[in-house]
Amino acid sequence: MFVTLDLQSLFKETLTRVWHVPILKVLGSGPARYADIRDGLVKLRESSPGDGTISTELRILRSKGLVEQLSQPNTTKKLWALTDLGKTVLRLIDEVDSLTNPENFQVKERRIEMPISDSQERAAAIDPTVPHPARRYDYLLGGKDNFAADRESAHEIEAVMPTVRLAARENRGFLQRAVKYLAGEGVSQFLDIGSGIPTSPNTHEIAQAIDPAAQVVYVDNDPLVLTHARALLTSTPEGKTAYINADLRDPEGILNDDQLRSTIDLSKPIGIILVAVLHFIRDDEDPKGIITRIIGSLAPGSWVVISHVTFDHMPSAALSGLEKPNRDGRFRARSRDELADFMTGLDLMDPGIQSIAHWWADEAPQPRPTVEDVAIYGAIGRVKAS
Ligand SMILES: C[S@@+](CC[C@H](N)C(=O)[O-])C[C@H]1O[C@@H](n2cnc3c(N)ncnc32)[C@H](O)[C@@H]1O
Hints:
Blueprint: H1 2-16, H2 20-27, H3 34-45, H4 51-63, E1 67-72, E2 75-82, H5 84-100, H6 119-124, H7 133-140, H8 148-160, H9 164-184, E3 189-193, H10 203-210, E4 215-220, H11 223-232, E5 240-245, H12 251-255, H13 258-263, E6 271-275, H14 287-296, E7 303-309, H15 316-321, H16 336-342, E8 346-348, E9 354-355, H17 371-374, E10 376-383
Helix pairs in contact: 1-5, 2-3, 7-8, 9-10
């Protein structure tokens, strides 16, 4: 625990000092003399800080245990080098850099307006040392946008629930079937909250395949999703796509967001997608109040799609094993009755609140998994005409 916290603060502090990262990068090529470091910085940044600054930065990096001085034979001049800890921090920086660098993505067409920030600033918002739901889910789906901490957390879950990858794919399948259905019913505006790291086909791709003019607003609170959304969420020329970096626990912030208001019209019916996100809202954060507030702002005839992890079918032996990956207490599975309470007042579509294993099973991949294999409920409700 101590090591993790230490690494976490070191990583963050390193990113906040302008010359720390370039110096670590220069030393990443191997031990170097003072003059070589200065030359390396000029090559990397096309400018170099004054000698006083380089000395100060090296002293600070040494006091943090990230660099050290090595003696050389036949000279009193010493070489600067990364320590093992310095190499670990540099590896994390490189990893975050490559996951967040838009140049690494193919952009078809971009209609998302978002300020471009410096890569160091983007990386500072991302903490690779603690698992995050979006990145862990990406790993479970076979994606590459995740770090060691996310993979370890996924393995901890897999140890007690070996079908968790299947469950993640099934959840994605439920989302896709639901969006296809809604678009077929004439829904042309979608608000997808807790959208995750883009995984094709995304909500807008499914909706726009049916109605090219469909408008989709994505919301997520994970900074890595933000960097990917910017590069990947694209739209047909007729439609519109927007991404909001916001938190479901602040429904007012989402509903009053300028980008949302200029993309979808809340006075007309929309489809709201809350798929695999509500279980990250703790009871003391008032999930029912959040949903009630959102549903209350929707026009009659709007649709609400929910999927939610449940332990209703989980053997009690497995439950204690899941405490480890949920050590931060962020995750809360819920029962069918609890979900029914969330959806009070909506007209529930057949088959009601049901395991996603059974939701429109005919259209889903065969053979169908069991209820225990997926451990996720799905439901679609409709806001009544007033
Ligand atoms: C398991 S993923 C689901 C992604 C997608 N909805 C799907 O089902 O394929 C959960 C997503 O919810 C996001 N999330 C968790 N808590 C959130 C919150 N309070 N506000 C917004 N997004 C949140 C995570 O960052 C993550 O991307």
